[in-house]
């Protein structure tokens, strides 16, 4: 049987096992997780089901542990014909029962174009977001609300105003903001938009608000459309908590005309560790991208707990995979301060969201100054001047460098 | 501030850290994952937000690792007011950002009645399923399709007929059956129902079919209703792959009048290991139950990879938690054969689904005999006779005991 290289999803698993058992194990996965068994099928059915049978694509020993025990990577190919148009079908097949099979981790996933075509991908992508936020030539800058729960609408508006005054492109909700006790998402979108317009008179920029999209699944689309109409700048979405197919529905809905910003909350429960679960670049890179996130927040390399260099690079490759879908904007998060901007530009290039909470609110002169400092740093990089040179025109940048470095 | 014991979700985390840092870490979680910060708030706001602030409920050292490093359990209380009516809000809050914080695992969750009341729970539960399947006094018996992918509708019908002829109460799809190339879920429900009626003439029992509920999220409710109308016996649902709030919508929908059978596919990606992720009893016990699964499949203690005795007991407690919701039926899976039935009854009691694949299809005389052997074993237990005694009236049971034990 000729194997079509298109039309096969390749899953790579890290396992620990006896070297002598690997081949049988791989075969057991390939056959057992597709057609079930060859031996119990009559000859007459073999051809018919063979198009659906998984294949062992490779077995690679990574580490010898002694006493014939090894860490190995098994690559299994699953025919695209076995899936429907959902991430649920993909995950249930490649890491469903198998996820419960002891020490096993899904470390790689190759999705062919004919499978990707079944997923919506981002509606806006990098170019669409740039168009939407009127930022053509530089990285975007996003501030994070310091805290939201328990604050009244006027207090929240004030916090929005202070951040917007710094000239940032986007402001995102705290992703744990679910309570509607003092302010519903609709009220916030409405009020912050007023504030953004007022602030634009000074800054020249109408800051976009990434509102946390919340509530029961069957009401999400309706809410997203409403928030879109009310003027939301983006929809912040806890994709792992809700499910990738829930995101896919939102991305595919033509009446939801606002970019989606995926938050990585709960993803660590899947990717933490090395021996179980699913690699971070799969969860936050591949799945988030192809399910339709226009912008994806993920742990940066500059915080206290990072994904590591290799995982981050792989994640970026996935976000930028433009074979079928528009690329998504990466938004590395944690440990970001103005002095880091040249490094961010070196590590990520221009298509990037510079995303900070403490690095804005913790500025000695407050959030407005914090936003201004980031904008000044970005402008310096775009102008090709060092941050040190830029401080002469920007005291707030000078104060930020004095606090967080680097020393100039 | 008086702490109301109702109205607080308690989350227990296993962490590895320096003993000296535990208190600060716990405080950081309690405050940081709710109101953000005390110190940056003006005094005037303290009372207003205090109702939303998390509390450190306990710090317990579990293991001393030397050099001041320990494994500890931190218990944090989150005010119910911080959540909305979704599992997304619960998970994002108690294990959102925190899941990415290095070596940390969610090992316990206490959900108070006022939070549980926001979730639908099972529509049928144990009593409703017993009523529905007309099985009042004994454990239910369920067969699993051996394989589905690639088979034509007549072949699938034949496999259904063979299993139904064994007199089993339920037959479930292979949970990886997504392709509609040869037979849609609707066609299968319709055809299997015909078959079930025919077989009932011999067995006296109309076997219920647990069809895999598949497809995009926005069409699931419509499909579930349709399958319900066509006569589906239950809806098999890959809840972890789709999301707990997707399940909750189905369970809450009054037009979906058919029990839901949750499959644990993908859950191992969350619970595998000890140092990261979320405990199995939380995922498959608590969340599945309160999201509305009437029946929950989980790895049995008799297979090759088990959850362990303690986790299984905790899982069962959660399924049986009837404070607010109807209890769910446990369906331990893997390594189940007729000779195990008395042990199953001792371990689980009467409210149980005896669920087998290989233990039915692998019977020396085929699937019909396999089902009959299980039914004979169950009858023996209900009659208070030993399996050995029962073999005289049941040659198929004798054959099953000869193959799988125990020796009689």
TrEMBL record, chains A, B:
One of its GO terms (molecular function) is 2,3-diketo-5-methylthiopentyl-1-phosphate enolase activity. It is an enzyme of class 5 (isomerase). SUPFAM superfamilies: RuBisCo, C-terminal domain, RuBisCO, large subunit, small (N-terminal) domain. Its EC number is 5.3.2.5. Coiled coil: none annotated. The keyword Isomerase applies. InterPro entries: RuBisCO, RuBisCO_lsu_C, RuBisCO_lsu_C_sf, RuBisCO_lsu_fd_N, RuBisCO_lsu_N_sf. It comes from the Bacteria. The keyword Amino-acid biosynthesis does not apply. Residues 126-404 form the Ribulose bisphosphate carboxylase large subunit C-terminal domain. Keywords: Isomerase. Belongs to the RuBisCO large chain family. This is 2,3-diketo-5-methylthiopentyl-1-phosphate enolase. It comes from Alicyclobacillus fodiniaquatilis.
